[in-house]
Specification:
Oligomer: single chain
Strand order of the largest sheet: 5-4-3-6-7-9-8
CATH topology: Rossmann fold
CATH superfamily: Vaccinia Virus protein VP39
Number of helices: 5
Strand content: 25-35%
Largest sheet: 7 strands, mixed
Number of strands: 9
CATH class: Alpha Beta
Structural class: alpha/beta
Amino acid sequence: MREFVESRFTAPRPDCPNPERWHAPDDQSTEVEVTALVAAMVTALQPDFVLETGTCRGSTTEAIGRALRANGQGKLVSLEVDPECVAFARRRCVGLPVCILATSSMDYIPSCPIDFAFFDSLASLRALEFVRYARWMHDRTVVGFHDTGPQHTVRERLKHLEEEGMLVSPLYLPTPRGVMFARVRT
């Protein structure tokens, strides 16, 4: 898949003055370097169950699946409503411990505890998704949210979860689109 410099999609700003150092296949997919970071989190955390919302074309989905396969255990369920994206991502993830469901993130019910979650669906849903899935999380769960840069609305939507103590020690990283990782207080 062709990659473009991120500055094609994201303008420089004080906390990320050089977006051209990152890459992305399009304006909807996670930056390649952030995808690698998410996969590294999966490698480091050794989760049994991973949830991803917003599969898109499956770049991050595939990377998580490869990390789980290398770990020797674990599975990923990724949720996407666009049927074309679901079909593309399923082809891309053949042979990986990945299940891509063509369903809304607000309808899916996990069958086991969530060890790691990466929220990358519609910006308006990400905080709501976290609240919805919190009952399946535990004190070791780590979550990630994409598009938390100041140019996006996700960070503001997460603020009340931090204030209520549901997201513990959030770490906002100054990537072009922004990404945040936190522990969960259940």
